[in-house]
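Possible regression after last week's pipeline update?

I re-ran a chain I had predicted before the update to compare outputs. Posting the input and the new output here so someone can diff against the archived version. Not blocking, just want to make sure nothing changed silently.
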Amino acid sequence: MKISKDMASALNKQINEEISSGYLYMAMAAYFDSISLKGFASWMKKQASEEWGHAMKMYEFVFERGGSVVMEKIETPQAKWASPLAAFEDAHKHEMYITEKIDGLVKLARKENDIATENFLQWYISEQVEEEASTDEIVQKLKMIEGSKNGLYMLDKELFSRK
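New output (post-update):
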């Protein structure tokens, strides 16, 4: 069964959201590089790469279902943050926003009785649970070490080891 026009359009918007997420995380990486937090920057670069992968997975799915992909404009992301904590709080809020968008896609798939798309989106639901948890964990660690340069140094080393 071919994907509906509405579902393809909604998935196209989500492809744009995923690419925009990668762009945001690259901006965060640049911020962290600018303040010599190479581990934080490395974590964000890996996150940006993951987001690109999410977009490509969705891109392929739309074509597999007979739809079209239309690339849309990407907005310029924020470039500076008040602190590493502020940046990761924004990353966590952004992941919660993306979760809402994925939930909306699932609701549309259910409304259209599009079982194939609903099934495809299950991976994204699980991924968003992981994305929210990982960003929140770093937010909590940054709050725990707030004001400790040693703690920040240790967390930077830990984040550099992300695979």
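Follow-up from reviewer: compared with the archived run. The chain has one domain: 5-71+82-160. Marking as no regression found.
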